[in-house]
Each structure stands twice: as C-alpha cells, then as structure tokens.
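Sequence design from tokenized structure. All designs in this work follow the same two-part layout: the structure record, then the generated sequence. An example of the structure record is given first.
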C-alpha cells in the first residue's frame, strides 16, 4: 500500500532549543507569569513591544514593567494550545531578559521601561541568532497623561540593540529630536556587498534614516519627494511628510506616508534600494491608497507597520497616535499582488478583537511562512476572560469565523485575562527563515496491525535539506487550529535516532507507530529534525490517510424469502461476522449503492455489541425504499457499516447478496430491456430506441408505458422529442413485446448526450412501476458507431437454438477507420458462431468515411450449462478502447443457471461470486482481448458446483492490462 503525504511546511534553518518548563516566578503586576529562558533567539519566537503602563498612583509610567518580550509561538509550542480560548487557560512561555536566567545577572539588562523607556518599533537582523532592534516612541501617550521618560543619556530619538544571545542592551544611535515626537518604525536590509542597514522613520522631522548595523552611524536620509520642507517646530512633522511604517521587500523600501486624520487616504509608497543600500531617488512609486476608515465619521488612522508574506502579499496594521489615540478604530488590511499592482482585500478579511466593528488593531503585524498572521490587538475576545495583547489568524483570515477569534491563538501580554490594557500594544516581529523546504518526507508504506487494537507501523522516507546534520527526528502533536477539517493528531511526542546521523542532502527511512484506533482517519503530526543537543532544526506538518485494513470478516450470511398474504415478499438476512475494526461495534447499518431499490436499514447486534476481535450476529429485514420493488433473483450490493458507541467511529466493507426465490419459477418479476447507448444519426438528426417489455406471468397482462428525458448528460430532452412518448400494450403470457421510439436528437453536438427513461406498470391488475434507462449520444468523428439492427433486436430463441444478431457499424467521420472489434458473451452463456463453444469473437472491420456496414453475428446459448432465469443477457462490444453493451432476449428458461453475479476488484484482488449447480463442474477463464480469434485461458483449476454461490478469488498484477473473465461448465 502506498499513500501520498499532505504537507504544510514550517521551514527553520536555525537550531531551536527544546525547552523544559521552568518554575513560575512571581513578578510585579502587568508581567507575564510563565517565564522561560528564550535566548538565544529561535525560529518561531515572536518579539513584541508594549507600553510599561501607568504606575499604581496614575501619575507616571511603571518603569519597572517590561516593554519588550519574547513569546514562544513555535510549532512545538502551539501543539499544546487550544485556539479561541483566553490566554489564562494556557501559560505562554515568555521572556524579558530577566536576571535569573543570565550568566551575569544585571538589573541594567532587563527589558523594562527603566532601561529602554517607551519603545514601539522592532526588527530583527539576519545574524544567527539575530539581534533585536527597538526604537523609542510616544505612541502610547494618551490625552491628559505624562510625556514618556527616557533612560539617562537617551532621548526620543534612541534606537537600542538587544543581543540575540545574551539579551544585553546597547544604545545604537540617537536620531535628531527636539521634542517627544519620537520615532516611527524601523526595518533591516543587507545590501549586495554584505553590509547591513537599519532604515528608521523619524516622526519629528519626517526623514527615513539609513543607519549602519555594524557602526550605528547615520549614512544618509530620505524624505518623500513631494513632501513639504520640515517646519522645524517641536512635535511631529507636517502631514504629507510624516512617515511611520517601513519595510524592505524585493529590493524596495516600502513606507507609509501619513497624510492626515480626516478623509485623505494614507498611502504606501516605495523606493528602490541601490546595491550599496542607498535610496534610488528616481524610483519612488505610489503602491496603494489605503481605504479610508468609514465606521462612524470617516477618518484615516496612520499605518504603523508593514510586512510581507513569502508570496509577496502585503499586510499593514493601523494605529492611532498621541492626542488622537482611539484604540478601537484601527485595522489590519491585506493587499494582494506585487509592487506596482497591489490591490486591497476587503477590510473585514482580518477582524481584530471583539468590539464592534472589530477594528481593534494595536499597530503591529507579522506573518509566518505558513501564512498564519499575528497582530497586536485590544479586547481580543469578549467575556470575563477577555485578553489584550497578541491575536493570530489562520491563513486567509477570519472573516468566516464566528466568533471572529474562533481559530485564533490568543496571547495576553501580562497573562492576566480581563485586565484592561487598552492601547498599550506595539509592534510584532517573528523570527522565520524562507519557506523553502528544509526536508522532504514521504510515506513509503503503512503496515496494518498484527491483531485488532495493536499499532500500525508507518514507514517514512526523510531527506535532510536543512544545511545541518540531524542526529534525531521526532513527531509531536499538531495544534488543533492547524488540523484540516476532520483530521486528528497524535497524543504525545516521540523521538527516534538516525543511524548514522543524517547529513545535509542525505536520505534515510524510519518507522513510527500509529495507534490502531486511528483506522480510517486522517492523522496529522509535526515532523522535526533535531541536532545532537537535541535542538530543533526544522519542522513540517505531515498528514497521513490511515487505512481500515479490514473492517470485518463475514463468517456466514443466510437470506430467506417468505411470500406475504398480499403477494409481496419479505427477505430476512442473518449475518455472522468477526469484527476487525479496532473498536467495539454497537450498531450495524446497510447503506445501499446509488440507484439501488434497497432501503437503508440498521440493527443492533445480538447481545448489544460485537467486541473488537470478537464474533457476533445480527438480523435485518431487506425492503424496497422506492419503486421498482426488490425482485427475486436480483443481486443487491451495499456497504455494511459497523459503528462504535455514539456513532464516533465507523468502517465498512461492500457485501452482495442474491435475493432468493420465494417459490421457484412462480415469482419471476416482469422486466424491461432497452438500448443502453443509442447513436444519433447525423444525416437525419434522429435515433431509434428499442424497448422491450416482458410479461413473465402465466396470464396475459396489459401495461401502460411512457418515455421521457432524464438528467445526467449535456442535454435534457423535452417530452415532444420522443415519438411515440407513451402508449398501452397487451402482452400474452410468458412473452415479450418490442416497441420502437424515434428520438429527435438534432440538438446534440458531437460528443454530447441526452439521458432517457422508459417506465411501465401493469394496468390490470395494477403493479409496481419498472423503469429502464439509457443514453442517446452524438458520435464523435473518428469513432465507430455500433447499432443493433431491428428487427433482430432483441431476438427470441428456443433454448439451445441458434439465431443471428445484426449490427450496423457506421463511420460518421471524414477519414476511413480500420479497427479490431470483439464481441463478448456475458455470464458464460452466449456463444458466437454456429459450431463454436467460444464465448468471445473478434473480427477486423474497415469502414469508409461516412459509410455503414452490417455485421451478421450467429449466436446461441451455451449447450453445456443450465438454463438461466433472466430473460436478457448483455453482449459487450469492445472497439477502439471503449466497451459498449447491448443485449439479447431468449425464451423462458426452466431452471437456475451459472453466471458471474459479482465482480469486486479491491487491493489488486478480483472476487467472483458464481451461482452453480451441485453435481456439475466449472472452469474460470480469462482473456485480455489481444489476439484474434479471442483466446480464453484457464485461470483456476476445475471446481465442483454447489447449491450456495461459490466465491472465487484471484490476485491481479498491479498495473496489468484490462482483463475479461468468464465461467463455463466443462464435461
């Protein structure tokens, strides 16, 4: 068995330390309570900024509180989180460079307001591990409150470097500042020469500063080309000059131009960066006008952050500022396209928070390579345990989620849900690499459990593309929000060793267990490569379709028919089976195949259940769900479904039964035969449907009939297309009557088709309606058209007698056609040729363009087999890669026959259920129709007939050519 693997990749090329849960520390109010040592920085870690908040007296900032934090939002961490729940139900791993975790404790290095002041902007460089840069801000200052306080020697223009390994704080640069207007945002870019640059927006003077990462020296500045000159006054520069959000993408620096707070749209512009990281002033270009915020009085919140997905999708976050701060009037907006052609998605694609109209953005936004978005937000979820901090979004947004946080991870910054910290949230950045595969993984095989309830064994092929050597690989549960609909995940992580360690570019196979309870389900898990520490190298999600190896084994099935006083029949089915499903079966259900007259039915097993691995029985009554009714001798196929308690699990296998006769030879139902595929003649635009009604009773009967169009093809024919479209016919006892219907099919195009249905019922005495269906089709040029010539369709022969079926073969195309044509008798009953016992016959025909040829085919019933209770027998015509079916009608039989009544190819196995007679001998034969004349080869040894049906099984070679089988009686 080979299965395809569904993969969502989270590529990580920097090692990730596997973290043990640390002791919970008591911190001042407003600080997270599940502190972990999250340095050095690792892929999947999210860095956020926030305000220190006001002190208890409300007369100053609580400088002892953190203003920068790292949260562990890696794939491994998310596997333990439930989406949609307030963060008080999950202790997020958090870090602010606390002294207790560092080798050289120092209160001066903790990321608090005392050491950094108020900061908003955050970016990461490309070192390994990366350093964190944060910039001073006045964004959190609310009307009527104090101005921010800067650390000694720092100012409103300060930018700080936080070491990605030790957390040490370094003052990098101070940009010009004559007031507390402070800075906007910042981003990082490395030029083609290998130099790193910070691009920092200064709200004070409207410039973007280019600052060297290595020396922290200012290289030069950039101002929007059409901006007014800076007025030089204290406070933010003028609208139309003022810039906040900045980000580098695809060689261009994107920046958010702040126009006003009224109805003028904010704008995203871009400027190309030269090879040395400088600004190409001739390349400035308007990217998008940000839609005006229309809720209430129209307004335009400034864009404080810009980020890009790996596919080039642009995301922006808005934020109010200073005296005009309104935390509930800011959005997260997505723009699709590329530079020069971005288009805004509906601004309700990403609904932020819980307060209507769900525009509660905090000003920061970041995207993972998986497409999941993270944004700072106010009032994320409604209720007593509402949270303020960080909200995630599934790929594609949450417009369809109700409530809007249904599939969001929710991170409350201080870990105290319900505590209002309105407006105190800033920027967001995530450490991620490119989304290229860091490994390839595929499922080679799944071995079924040795016994019911034991584990499956999954064999994986793993190729290391990470650039590092992997010593181990592990599996861990997926986060619930990352599971496809209906999928489940494993219960707990497991780790396995590579032997030898897996070098970059190398491939090894490994095996892992999956519980037997996963049978029939989609199971997803995170697959991680680990180094020798062991530390995580990268992770990808793998989903496996776990097969139900065998639901059950039918030990016996017995079906009996009892004629009811009203003339109807009742069939009772008793089944004994061994349950191999992996669960206890408390209910069984019969689900009919599409179009079956059988009604669905369910039952409770004897004793209440069938234990997994145990044997039990159940009894059901088979009834008709609709007309036509069930008919004696009919073969019914259905899915037999086992259900666990409360319908939580199920599995099924196909089963077939033949309805026995309540009284032999006296209850054969009336039946009909119709041309299944009828070609439309191009010259006349008409087709002829040949319809036969058979009266199988001992007295004459009168029937009414009608024909009409049926759905399922390219054209639906109106009633007037059929002539005649209805009628009444009286048929003698044990006889058949054939009716011709002309169909107007001129509306069909080449290759088109129209379905039809012919139905009849007894007039006196009344009886159930019986219908036959077929298709009228317009031939495609280049294909031969076969049509059974009337009046020899159908034919009526005495048993053992011979006759002729005539086929008209036409070529509707523009070129002559030469093709091999094979005629196949069904059920091992029909022979072709006056003196042959072969039930297959082949000829080669050559038909000129637009010409027609008649083929006369001698036929008879096989003389060495018992007679057959059915009246019509399919005759297959195989030509040009297509198998067409027609039929012949023979005289009334007198006893039961042999016949292949079920073919069920599953897992490279064919199953034949054959009705035979005791005391006679039979042979199963096979042909691939590749030779002329057709040759039939023995497949199984000669076997003896028996009263119950004989079941024959044979294996089929995978990928083998089309195979045809027949069962014949032998002397």
């Amino acid at each position: 068995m080979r299965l395809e693997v569904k993969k969502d990749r989270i590529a990580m090329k920097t090692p990730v330390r596997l973290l043990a849960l640390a002791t919970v520390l008591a911190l001042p109010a407003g600080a997270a309570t599940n502190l972990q040592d999250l340095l050095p920085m690792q892929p999947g870690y999210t860095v956020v900024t926030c305000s220190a908040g006001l002190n208890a007296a409300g007369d100053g900032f609580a400088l002892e509180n953190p203003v920068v934090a790292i949260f562990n939002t890696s794939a491994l961490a998310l596997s333990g989180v439930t989406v949609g729940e307030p963060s008080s139900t999950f202790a997020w791993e958090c870090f602010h460079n606390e002294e207790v975790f560092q080798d050289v404790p120092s209160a001066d290095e903790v990321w608090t307001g005392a050491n950094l002041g108020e900061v908003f902007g955050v970016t990461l460089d490309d070192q390994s591990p990366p350093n964190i840069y944060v910039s001073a801000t006045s964004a959190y200052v609310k009307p009527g409150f104090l101005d921010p306080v800067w650390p000694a020697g720092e100012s409103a223009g300060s930018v700080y470097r936080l070491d990605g390994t030790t957390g040490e704080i370094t003052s990098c640069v101070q940009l010009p500042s004559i007031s507390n207007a402070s800075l906007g945002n910042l981003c990082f870019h490395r030029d083609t020469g290998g130099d790193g640059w910070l691009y920092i927006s200064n709200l004070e003077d409207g410039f973007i500063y280019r600052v060297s990462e290595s020396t922290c020296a200012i290289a030069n500045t950039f101002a929007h080309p059409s901006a007014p000159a800076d007025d030089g006054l204290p406070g933010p520069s003028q609208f139309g000059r003022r810039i906040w959000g900045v980000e580098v993408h695809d060689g261009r620096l994107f920046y958010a131009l702040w126009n006003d707070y009224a109805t003028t749209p904010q704008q995203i512009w871009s400027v190309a960066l030269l090879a040395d990281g400088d600004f190409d002033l001739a390349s400035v270009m308007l990217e998008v006008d940000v839609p005006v915020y229309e809720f209430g009085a129209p307004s335009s919140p400034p864009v404080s952050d810009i980020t890009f997905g790996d596919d080039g999708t642009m995301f922006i976050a808005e934020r109010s500022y200073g005296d005009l701060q309104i935390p509930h009037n800011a959005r997260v907006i997505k723009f699709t396209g590329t530079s020069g052609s971005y288009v805004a998605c509906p601004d309700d694609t990403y609904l932020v928070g819980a307060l209507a109209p769900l525009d509660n953005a905090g000003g920061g936004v970041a995207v993972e390579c998986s497409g999941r978005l993270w944004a700072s937000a106010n009032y994320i979820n409604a209720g007593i345990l509402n949270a303020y901090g960080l909200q995630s979004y599934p790929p594609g947004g949450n417009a369809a989620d109700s409530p809007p946080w249904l599939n969001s991870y929710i991170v409350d910054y201080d870990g105290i849900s319900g505590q209002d910290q309105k407006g105190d949230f800033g920027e967001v950045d995530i450490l991620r690499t490119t989304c290229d595969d860091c490994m390839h993984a595929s499922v080679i095989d799944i071995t079924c459990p040795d016994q019911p309830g034991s584990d499956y064994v999954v064999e994986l092929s793993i190729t290391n593309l990470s650039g590092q050597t992997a010593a181990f690989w592990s599996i861990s549960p997926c986060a619930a929000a990352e599971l496809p609909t209906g999928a489940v995940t494993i219960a707990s992580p497991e780790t396995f060793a590579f032997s030898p360690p897996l070098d970059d570019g190398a491939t090894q196979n490994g095996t892992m267990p999956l519980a037997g309870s996963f049978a029939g389900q989609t199971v997803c898990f995170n697959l991680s490569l680990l180094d020798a520490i062991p530390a995580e190298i990268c992770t990808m999600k793998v989903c496996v379709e776990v097969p139900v190896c065998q639901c059950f084994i039918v030990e016996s099935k017995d079906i009996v028919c009892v004629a009811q006083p009203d003339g109807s029949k009742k069939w009772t089915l008793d089944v004994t089976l061994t349950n191999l499903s992996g669960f206890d079966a408390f209910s069984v259900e019969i689900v009919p195949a599409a179009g079956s007259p059988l009604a669905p039915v369910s039952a409770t097993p004897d004793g209440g259940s069938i234990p997994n691995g145990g044997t039990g029985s159940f009894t059901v009554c088979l009834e008709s769900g609709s007309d036509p009714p069930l008919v004696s001798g009919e073969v019914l196929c259905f899915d037999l479904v086992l259900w666990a308690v409360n319908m939580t699990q199920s599995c099924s296998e196909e089963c077939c039964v033949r309805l026995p006769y309540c009284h032999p030879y006296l209850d054969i139902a009336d039946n009909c035969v119709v041309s299944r595929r009828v070609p439309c003649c191009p010259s006349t635009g008409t087709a002829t449907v040949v319809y036969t009604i058979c009266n199988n009773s001992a007295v004459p009967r009168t029937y009414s009939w009608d024909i009409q169009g049926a759905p399922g093809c390219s054209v639906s024919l109106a009633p007037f297309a059929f002539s005649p479209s209805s009628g009444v016919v009286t048929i003698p006892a044990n006889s058949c009557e054939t009716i011709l219907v002309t169909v107007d099919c001129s509306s069909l195009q080449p290759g088109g088709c129209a379905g039809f249905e012919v139905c009849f019922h007894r007039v006196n005495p009344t009886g159930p309606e019986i219908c036959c269906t077929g298709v009228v089709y317009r031939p495609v040029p280049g294909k031969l058209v076969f049509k059974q010539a009337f009046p020899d369709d159908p034919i009526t022969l005495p048993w053992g007698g011979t006759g002729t079926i005539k086929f008209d073969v036409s070529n509707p195309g523009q070129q002559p056609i030469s093709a091999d044509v094979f005629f196949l008798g069904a059920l091992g009953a029909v022979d072709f040729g006056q003196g042959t016992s072969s039930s297959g016959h082949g000829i080669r025909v050559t038909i000129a363009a637009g010409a027609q040829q008649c083929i006369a085919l001698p036929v008879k019933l096989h003389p060495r087999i018992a007679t057959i209770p059915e009246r019509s027998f399919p005759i297959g015509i195989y030509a040009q890669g297509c198998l067409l079916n027609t039929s012949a009608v023979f005289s009334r039989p007198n006893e039961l026959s042999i016949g292949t009544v079920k073919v069920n190819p599953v897992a490279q196995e064919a199953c034949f259920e054959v009705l035979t007679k005791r005391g006679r001998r039979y042979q199963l034969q096979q042909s691939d129709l590749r030779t002329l004349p057709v040759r039939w080869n023995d497949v199984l040894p000669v076997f003896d007939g028996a009263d119950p049906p004989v079941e024959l099984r044979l294996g089929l070679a995978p990928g083998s050519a089309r195979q045809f089988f027949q069962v014949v009686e032998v002397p």
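The first strand starts at residue 6 and ends at 10. We note this feature because it recurs in several other targets discussed in the main text.
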